[in-house]
Write a structure and sequence with these properties.
The protein has 223 residues and is mostly helical. It is built from 9 helices and 2 strands, in the order ααααααααββα. A hairpin with a 7-residue loop joins strand 1 and strand 2. Helix 3 packs parallel to helix 9, helix 5 packs parallel to helix 8 and helix 5 packs antiparallel against helix 9.
Length: 223
């Protein structure tokens, strides 16, 4: 079941707030779009790219969850900071919410101005989302409760990611012709492919957060 999209303080508004500081100058109308002009279908390169990002980001999260001890998983750099396990829970909780935007864009029908409205934004998103110098507050619905075990998080994450990967591998829809507006004026209209890219980009952003937790000098040493 797809979670409701575009609530107040939604994840979708949250995620791209990181783009506002320091990146607004990076979005230019003359940026090169990845597909041929007028073709809304995914290129082979675009499909392979998003599949690789989905697969690699998932593998990294699960690798960390499997290799760390319980003490390491629950370590918090500070009382108001998340542990590795909590970051992973947030990634898992967010998957369906972000993918729901893809579905909503498709449901809205074809936007005849999709190319002009979304040109250059795929590259912009990849740069902005992975910039960890700009931190944001997660919406309450996606704040980890800390009550799930590592195996529960892994199982639910794999289940949600498998659905996203299946869609990325099999869809033949002209994804770039379907759009949904983002509440951030600097982003405006994003197409369904760009919303799909946000799934692994969000995962990758929080994998970097996990790395930051593990790099803390007080992080418990391994056996």
């Amino acid at each position: 079941m797809v979670l409701p999209i575009m609530k107040s303080k939604s994840l979708l508004a949250l995620m791209l707030a990181v783009a506002f500081a320091g990146f607004t100058s990076g979005l230019r109308a003359d940026d090169n779009a990845s597909a041929a002009a007028g073709d809304a279908r995914l290129t082979k390169e675009e499909r392979a790219h998003v599949i690789k990002l989905l697969s690699d980001s998932e593998a990294r999260t699960i690798e960390v969850l499997n290799k760390l001890s319980d003490e390491q998983l629950h370590f918090k750099p500070a009382p108001d900071k998340w542990s590795v396990l909590e970051v992973a829970e947030h990634i898992m909780l967010s998957e369906n919410e972000i993918f729901g935007a893809v579905q909503k864009a498709i449901d809205s029908g074809v936007n005849p101005d999709w190319e002009a409205k979304t040109k250059g934004k795929s590259e912009f998103l990849e740069k902005a989302i992975l910039d960890r110098s700009h931190k944001v507050q997660a919406p309450e619905a996606l704040v980890p409760a800390g009550k799930l075990s590592r195996q529960e998080i892994i199982a639910r994450f794999k289940e949600e990611r498998a659905k996203t990967l299946k869609f990325a591998r099999t869809t033949r829809l002209p994804l770039k012709s379907y759009t949904m507006d983002h509440p951030a004026p600097v982003l405006g209209t994003l197409n369904a492919y760009q919303w799909l890219l946000l799934v692994p980009l969000h995962n990758m952003r929080h994998n970097l957060q996990i790395d930051e937790v593990m790099a803390n000098p007080n992080f418990p040493k391994g056996v």
